[in-house]
Amino acid sequence: MAAVPSSAVAQVPDDVGRFGAFGGRYVPETLTKALDQLAREYDAAIKDPKFIADLDYLLKNYVGRPNPLYFLERLTKKCGGAKLYVKREDLNHTGAHKINNTLGQTLLTLRMGKKRVIAETGAGQHGVATANACARFGLECIVYMGEEDIRRQKLNVFNMRMLGAEVRPVTTGSRTLRDAINEAMRDWMSSVETTHYIIGSVVGPHPFPRIVRDFQSVIGRETIEQSQAQFGRLPNCVVACVGGGSNAAGMFYPFVEHKSVELVGVEAGGRGAKPGDHAAPLSHGTPGVLHGSFSYVMQDEDGQTSDVHSVSAGLDYPGVGPEHSYWKDAGRVRYTYCEDSEALEAFDAMARSEGILPALESSHAIAKGMEEARKRGPDEIVVICLSGRGDKDAFEVARLKGMKLE
Amino acid sequence: MSLVDETFRRLRSEGKKALMPFLTAGDPDLPFTAEVLKELAKRGAHLCELGVPYSDPIADGPVIQASYTRALEKKVKLADILKTAGEVAPTLVHEKNRVPVVTMVSYAIIYRHGLAKYVADAKAAGIAGAIVPDLLVEESAEFSELCRKEDFSLIQLVTPTTPRDRAKRIAERSTGFLYYVSVTGITGERTQLPPGLIDNVNWMRSQTELPICIGFGISTPEHVKLLAPAADGLIVGSALVRRVAAAATEPRAKVLNDVGAYVASLLAALN
Ligand SMILES: Cc1ncc(COP(=O)(O)O)c(C=O)c1O
User: Fold this and answer.
1) Cα separation, A192 vs A76, whole angstroms
2) What is the pTM of this model?
3) How far is CA A348 from the centre of its chain?
4) C-beta A246 within 6 A of ligand 1
5) Closest residue by CA, ligand 1 atom 15
6) What is the ipTM of this complex?
7) Residue in A25, A190, A305 closest to B136 by CB
């Protein structure tokens, strides 16, 4: 096992998918051939100017990139400290950062000549993004979604069906994201020769954590360019929420070797620090194996995955991408957590002060971004990754506030 | 030599094939698991595979998944499973030959328990080896070395999607036997086994001296008759787990008898 690194570098993972001690590939032998094929195809694709041009075209014309780095004037005043900016992933087509990864992996699917796509989804944003991309390219699309999340994210379920995807309810275990990943993996075990699994975050076996990070790192690259253009320098602090960790990895990765920039990852603190009340493996978990990767995870003393809780379906996951574990142990990223109630307050603050309804996931980052701003002086700049918009959460927020929607 | 090696050496010298039933530890409870193990040995099963319930088993179909979920809902712990194994495994004898028990156990569980400690504790419980369905040959160096030192079999898997050069490498690393997965897919009873399976096993046979056991999907005496000539042993999982699960609602003596009769029907087709 590799020693704890003294500082994080960007040249990870290695050939076998290790980020320091973390990552790797812990899956049944059946999946090896497809994972090897994917790794080879990806290596070839990123050297192919046509692939890069096709992806750039889609990101510009289909997704609407680059999205703005936007000044939160009234929230900044309210906090009375550093200037707050948001990276507007919520303005992307389909309403979240997930589409950045989905399009990249859809193009890989086409390169591999596969006609069927499976995906898991928690909040439904990755499912919707995948359904859009598959509709655009005429691929069959099946989305696994936990029954509990189907209840919480009705609107996205309806949208996926309108886009021609089949949404398969998952009724095992906690009926959330973790179980949806299990079902998608099981489907893939049987369909691996004809099907690509578009995983929705920087989790899973090698090479997924690397591929998803790379496709999402357009977020951080744009943020760096826009910071240089708008303030002539990099921000002091960058904040993102961490479910599986893809928006955070995409935002943080290009900053890793810009050591002056503080990076803060925000996990779901749920109802409190008691086991089962939160979904914060980097804050409360231990290293272990889940979904094909070695990373921090919420487990009991036998290695059984623990139940977790968050108001936000997209953060309600007991594991986290291996690169975050690497950044945590190397001290490059500071990980903290935000409780359900704080996230809801940040949701309200963003809505009332800025006229932006954020996703509940992103509200976790906003809460901690405001906290960072309060601690800092007016010459400092804090950038928050606004990973998605809040429309999908209307029913859940109404329920939490004791209001009723027809 | 582990007890697994000794068993296959003996069976080969007698020109016989092995039947290896799989059952989930703790479904419906550990005392019944112990009873079933004794019944399997009594009927003449040659080895037994004991599944350690895991919360996220991605290689398992609905029957084994559900059995894991039931066992975990009853809070079955690894320590209790090893304790039960320690009581029964050394007593499992058929016609004077000991019947080895190997665990099917996820790497998540082994890692959490500690690699060396897992081997030591399992060995102390009379367990002869492990099948770790999510530990690929590339990731297995450390655990493999620990197992080798302790003469604890680490059984590796080859599947229909495994390229041939890779299959050879896996066979070189496997100890005890080589687990040949019959289908591209998850565990569960199948009516039809894939065409080409026997040819593939025959090819594997030409590459290694190691005993080869076929598993996944096997459930009927017809399957057994068809596959026995190609392999050293056959593994039967879901079909048995389904029968054992009936103990939740039916009298245990009846379930035990059904399980015994089912295994006897497979054994009759085997040798
Ligand atoms: C808007 C939004 N933000 C964040 C997440 C969390 O995922 P990740 O940590 O991979 O960015 C999700 C997941 O569904 C999401 O929809």
Assistant:
1) 49
2) 0.98
3) 22
4) yes
5) A314
6) 0.98
7) A25
